[in-house]
Design brief:
There is one protein chain. By secondary structure, the chain is α+β, with helices and mostly antiparallel strands. It folds into two domains: 3-146, Helix Hairpins (Orthogonal Bundle), CATH 1.10.287; 242-387, 2-Layer Sandwich (Heat Shock Protein 90), CATH 3.30.565. It has ten helices and five strands, in the order ααααααβαββααββα. It has a five-stranded mixed β-sheet with strand order 1-2-3-5-4, covered by helices on one side. α7 links the parallel β1 (266-272) and β2 (305-312). 12% of the residues are buried.
Length: 388
């Protein structure tokens, strides 16, 4: 092809890319506007649902009162005239119909709420996809219009940043899954139990059973305390305050003790050498390494003993986590690590590599597993600068 033909093709491609980019950008803007409108409507619907719930509760109270009145009339029929009975029956019927209508309205509002929430999520997905496509088209535009060597360097840098970003995202998602499991298994269950007990307390109060109400309130107080403990555990796992206040060794000692109490798996912790405070980022990395190692042992090792040894030397930090579980063939696991199949061990190795340290895996079938790391303390200053 002649140079002028190639030039025309490139120019035409650039025009198409530029036009398509603005069209996608307009789609993103429209989706964002739609999302804002949907969010405003959702707020209105939520307010209407709250009002409707209050109305339904009021009608339920009236209906119960009307039914009690009919019940009293049926027991003392001679005291009331036929007109009184008919009026009470009509009032109860009217209240029942209004209650059924309001419940249907409430159901319709809840359905509309769910629909709006789904549409908002879809709008967010559309916006994310559109912005991603625009970003990719920007790269293509730069590639076609700029210096080829410079664009190649940019692409390589972007690829490295993307890989790093994917690792960060995977770590974040794993942490979110863990937090979600903790909330679901702990706090969410406690809250559901609180709702149930509060309904029971409400019924007891409605019967004017004072002693029963006191008992239920005491039970509620106990459940609230358990829920508070669950919240504190989640907060501790997110960022152990002992790690900042006391240092790595007390935080690890507490984690090992709590792990043994929670899972019934005998756990030993030993520290040698002169303990020193490490940079915050290094302490967090070592702490998370122990957490991940314990989690892997719990899931896969079928062990009943975990030993953890932390050794401080003049210029190095050594950590050993060993179990007496079923073990495995290291060659097979190393192959899986190379191909990216064993995410747990990949995460452990990458945490150590971030500290410029060494990671050694030792295991054999039936003989348990040992995870050893060596971290040079000479890198502590650099890590501290990165964390700041």
């Amino acid at each position: 092809m002649q140079p002028d033909v190639i030039d025309r093709v490139i120019r035409k491609t650039l025009e198409v890319v530029e036009q398509s980019k603005y069209q996608i950008f307009e789609i993103s803007v429209m989706a964002r506007d739609e999302q804002e409108q949907l969010e405003k409507e959702l707020i209105q619907i939520m307010d209407q649902i709250d009002q409707m719930i209050a109305e339904v509760d009021n009608l339920e109270l009236k209906f119960r009162h009307a039914r009690r009145r009919l019940s009293d009339m049926s027991r003392q029929f001679n005291k009331y005239t036929e007109i009184d009975v008919r009026a009470a029956y009509e009032a109860a019927t009217k209240c029942q119909m209004e209650l059924a209508m309001q419940r249907e309205k409430e159901k319709a509002l809840r359905g509309r709420r769910d629909e709006l929430q789904l549409r908002i999520r879809n709008s967010k997905d559309t916006i994310d996809r559109a912005e991603n496509v625009v970003s990719q088209m920007d790269v293509a535009h730069q590639y076609l219009s700029g210096d080829m060597l410079k664009v190649g360097e940019l692409i390589e840098s972007a690829r490295n940043l993307q890989l790093f970003g994917l690792k960060v995202i995977l770590a974040q998602e794993e942490e979110r899954k863990r937090i979600a499991r903790e909330i679901h298994d702990g706090l969410a269950q406690s809250m559901a139990h609180l709702v149930l007990r509060s309904e029971i307390a409400e019924r007891v109060l409605a019967r004017d059973d004072k002693q029963g109400a006191i008992h239920e309130v005491r039970h509620l107080k106990g459940q609230i305390r358990l829920g508070l403990e669950d919240v504190r555990k989640v907060i501790f796992n997110l960022r152990p305050m002992a790690l900042d206040d006391l240092g790595l060794v007390p935080a690890l000692r507490k984690y090992v003790q709590d792990f043994e109490e929670k899972h019934g798996l005998r756990s030993l912790f030993q520290m040698k050498g002169k303990e020193i405070r490490l940079p915050s980022a290094m302490e967090v990395a070592v702490y998370r390494f122990v957490q991940e190692a314990f989690s892997n042992i719990l899931k896969h090792a079928n062990a009943d003993l975990i030993e953890t040894r932390l050794v401080f030397e003049d210029d190095e930090l050594h950590l050993l986590v060993r179990d007496n579980g079923i073990g495995f063939d290291p060659d097979i696991i190393h192959d899986k690590i190379k191909t990216g199949e064993h995410f747990g061990l990949i995460g452990l190795r990458e945490r150590v590599e971030m500290l410029q340290g060494e990671f050694v895996l030792d295991s054999s079938p039936g003989a348990g597993t040992s995870l050893k790391i060596r971290v040079p303390l000479a890198e502590a200053g650099q890590i501290d600068q990165l964390s700041s």
